[in-house]
Amino acid sequence: MTAEVDPSVLVSDRALLGRSSTADRVTDILRARIAEGYLPPGSKLSEDAIGSALGISRNTLREAFRLLTHERLLVHELNRGVFVRMLTVQDVTDIYQVRRLIECAAVRSLGAPPYDLSQAEGAVAEGEKAAEGGSSLALGTANIHFHHAVVALAHSERLNELMRGVLAELRLVFHAMDNPRSFHEPYLARNREILSALRAADRAKAELLLAAYLDDAEKQLVQRYSESIAAGEGGSRR
Q1: pLDDT tens across 67-118, in order?
Q2: What pLDDT score does 121 carry?
Q3: How far apart, in whole angstroms, are the C-alpha atoms of residue 70 and residue 85?
Q4: What residues pair up with 77 in beta bridges, in sequence order?
Q5: How far is the C-alpha of 103 from the C-alpha of 194, rounded, in Å?
Q6: Starting at the edge strand that comes first in sequence, how are the strands of the sheet with 3-4 ordered?
Q7: How wide is the angle at C-alpha 236 spanned by C-alphas 74 and 63, nearest 5°?
Q8: Packing angle between helix 118-133 and helix 136-152, nearest 10 degrees?
Q9: pTM
Q10: Distance between CA atoms of 223 and 165, rounded to whole angstroms?
Q11: Which residue, 219, 216, 203, is CA-closest to 150?
Q12: What's the rounded Cα separation, in Å, for the pair 144 and 199?
């Protein structure tokens, strides 16, 4: 079922554009909103509504749509418009293959300690607050922030940029979970374990914990996503 996106969530993002309103900046905003779960798969993106909310031209928005389509986050359907993409099971396994290559390598290649773990610590605290407040959406976002923080330890803007796109795609998969809180909450404890290993400068242990984490998460998501598609909940749009 196709749903129109409520553009009101984007109004507060207008200030982020400042005087340098560019397609790249709009792309960053929409990608972030996808990663935060505000633009679910299958949602139709209205040029008029989003352009008005952000105060940008139609051409700027169309360029942002084009960039996000290239990143596999949006899809353009002839005579229907632009939609947030619905992923396939193969997409899920591919995302986790990429995550293993990036995240595990980032931990393995860490230099001499101590490491700046402030971002990772902040993400764990964010997750604990979300769990206390009962927000599964915020819990999923905190989990994404933690793993982005792990990759940020490599101090590579190229890896950071790649990870932003991968994790935004991952958020589209999270929407298939019928009980997202029960899926995300156990991984909060595992994030703490990884953080503890990094605090102890035990890179080998942190990598093992991370690899096991990714294996388990992939199995859960692939199973649920397969069930969702089989039941017709995933739809046919890619």
Answers
A1: 999 999 999 998 899 999 989 999 999 999 999 999 999 999 998 999 999 9
A2: 97
A3: 11
A4: 81
A5: 12
A6: 3-4, 43-45, 81-84, 74-77
A7: 15
A8: 170
A9: 0.81
A10: 23
A11: 203
A12: 20
Q: At 230, is the pLDDT very low, low, confident or very high (cuts 50, 70, 90)? A: confident
Picking from 31, 46, 39, the residue whose alpha carbon sits closest to that of residue 9 is 39
CA atoms within 13 A on the CB side of 128: 10
**Residue type, position 45, single letter:** L
Sole residue written with tokens 């509504």: 49
The length of the chain in residues reads 238
Sign of the torsion formed by the C-alpha atoms of 160, 29, 38 and 138:
positive
Token pair for residue 17? 């554009």
Q: What single-letter amino acid sits at 218?
A: E
* Least confident span in 10-14, 83-87, 114-118, 220-224: 10-14
Contacts of 194 (CB under 8 A, 6+ apart): 150, 206, 209, 210, 213
Q: Which two tokens stand for residue 142?
A: 């905190």
Q: Which two tokens stand for residue 58?
A: 């139609």
- CA dist 170 and 143 (Å) reads 11
Q: Which two tokens stand for residue 96?
A: 């986790």
Supply 52's token pair: 């008005």
CB 63 within 8 A of CB 25: no
